[in-house]
Amino acid sequence: MVALVVVLVVVVVLLAVLVAGLLRSHADILKALHDLGVGVGEPSADGDSAHDHTAASGRPVPVPFTVGPQLPPERDSTSAPTIAGVTPDGGALAVAPAGSGGLTLLAFLSTGCSSCAGFWESFHDQAALGLPSAARLVVVTKGPEREIPGEVAALASPGLSVVMSSDAWTDYEVPGSPFFVLVDGTSGRRIGEGVANHFRQVAELVRRAEVDATAFDLGTRGGRDVGLDGPARESANDRELMEAGILPGDPSLYPTSLEDLYGPPDARMPVARHVRRVG
Amino acid sequence: MPGCPWPATCAGSAEVPGLTAHGIEAGLPGGFEGRIFKRASSGLEQSFAVAHFATFGLPDTVGDFGGGAVNLMGPDDVFTTLFEYGPDSLGTKLFARRGMPRQLATSDFQPYVLRRGLVGQSGTQWFFTEAGRPFTLYVVLGSHARRASLVPRANALLAGLTVLPQPAPVPLGASWN
After folding, report:
1. Given CB 3.0 to 4.6 Å as the disulfide criterion, which of A96, A108, B45, B142 pairs with B77?
2. Residue of B18, B31, B67 lying closest to A84 (CB–CB)
3. pLDDT per residue over A211-221, tens digit each?
4. Residues of chain B numbered 82-121 and touching chain A (CB < 8 Å)
5. Are A82 and B71 an interchain contact pair (Cβ–Cβ within 8 Å)?
């Protein structure tokens, strides 16, 4: 009888220790979730701070969407300053993601890092990246004092926006390459960032942000359906002119007088009927 | 941001870096993006500098006079093109004006000036010669009705633009002393 009581006591004690351990583990998990901004249970005073990006206490607040290893919490991970630098082809480019109105995905890449090679390659077919139409992609390398423009140009696909700026790496506190930052142009804040080794990780970051972006009311700018535009419109114009027998160098493309445009004065009809805007 | 009519502009108004390329310098006001480039030459055609500036995200590919960009403008946006012509245009009547206009007036903007007429927008275009280089300046406002507040933004941009004389072409081939 005594032995049975002793055994029961031991079992109860063991169960109590087990339950206490589980409760402790559960509390640690809740605390970790809360620190990440996705805590459950009773909301605290700053429970929504990760989503409104404000820190009443003044301490840095992590962005809501991250990929890869956790970054030091003391980073300024919400500001999105303008990036300005040179382009690999000798031009200059300034990107203001905080005022762009849509999502801007900044890809901080290098020419030398082996894990960047896959990203450079995948950017050759931007349509296959799966980025939402409201998002634009901008590649940021270090400046020409650290990178060779010719090497950057060799890796960058035509039509890809690439800006070379070491200052941008400092401003965004980039820990290394490859590194991605997602900025919401409507709120003017960084909403995602992190280290990624595969673009599908980045696409997941953007996808999560896009779902959340309904709160940011993307698409408030323009976005008018005006048919063909840009190079496609120019090509269509060229094709139509050539079909009409007007080839490059045709004298009609270089009028020297009003008569060349509208015909003899007597034959002029209301001008608007003769003017056709091209370009 | 209380008291700030342009939150994106005011938020980023400090320490906006400038751009310099192809003999054009641009000190950008806060909230402006910019791109200075030359298109690839084809055949005997020679390309010259083009500069785009916008208060919205510039797409990767934009036509010289805003094709592919002006349709993205919101009513509070400004788009500007600075387009250089070849030296054969120097001295022609079209480019007789000396210097880029720096202070545009609201009366300079008209909807029918647009190269591509989009409802609500208006534009202005100026031909001039500066630093021995012939240019046209083309400015589009996202909303003609809001020109009173948008023109000062365009003027702030123009105040920061500088056209430098083109350096003399470097002769091809090695030179021996």
Report:
1. B142
2. B18
3. 766 554 444 44
4. 115-118
5. no
Mutating which of B22, B36, B70, B166 best tests the A interface, going by the most A Cβ atoms within 10 A?
B36
Nearest to B19 by CA among A98, A140, A183, A95: A95
A53: left (phi over 0), alpha (psi -120 to 50) or beta: left
pLDDT in the model for residue A34: 56
Asked if B8 is an interface residue toward chain A (Cβ–Cβ < 8 A), one would say: yes
- Residue located via tokens 């300079």: B108
- In chain B, what residues touch A221 (CB-CB under 8 Å)? 56, 72-74, 77
| Residue in B12, B33, B67 nearest the CB of A230 | B67
Domains and CATH numbers, chain A: 83-216 (3.40.30.10), 230-273 (no CATH)
* Residue B16 pLDDT: 64
pLDDT tens digits, one per residue of B76-97: 999 999 999 999 999 999 999 9
pLDDT, one tens digit per residue, over A96-110 is 998 777 889 999 999
CA B103 – CA B105 distance, rounded (Å):
7
Residues of chain A with pLDDT under 50: 37, 39-58, 60, 216-222, 225, 268-279
Do B8 and A188 lie within an 8 Å CB cutoff? yes
Q: Please state, in angstroms and rounded to a whole number, the distance separating the CA atoms of residues A157 and A140.
A: 14
Element containing residue B36 per DSSP (H, E): strand B33-38
- Residue B5 near chain A (CB below 8 Å): no
Judge contact between B22 and B133, C-beta under 8 A: no
- How far apart CA A178 and CA B151 sit, in angstroms, is 41
Contact assignment for A94 to B17 by CB distance below 8 Å: yes
Percent of chain B beyond pLDDT 70?
84
The SS3 assignment for B124 reads strand
| H/E run at residue A230 | helix A230-243
Q: Report the pLDDT value the prediction gives residue A46, as an integer from 0 to 100.
A: 42
Neighbours of A81 (CB within 10 A): 20
Residues of B in contact with A231 (CB under 8 A): 61, 63, 67-68
Residue of B nearest to A249 (CA): B45
Over range B159-174, report the average pLDDT.
76
Q: Does pTM top 0.90 for this prediction?
A: no
The pLDDT value given to residue B103: 95
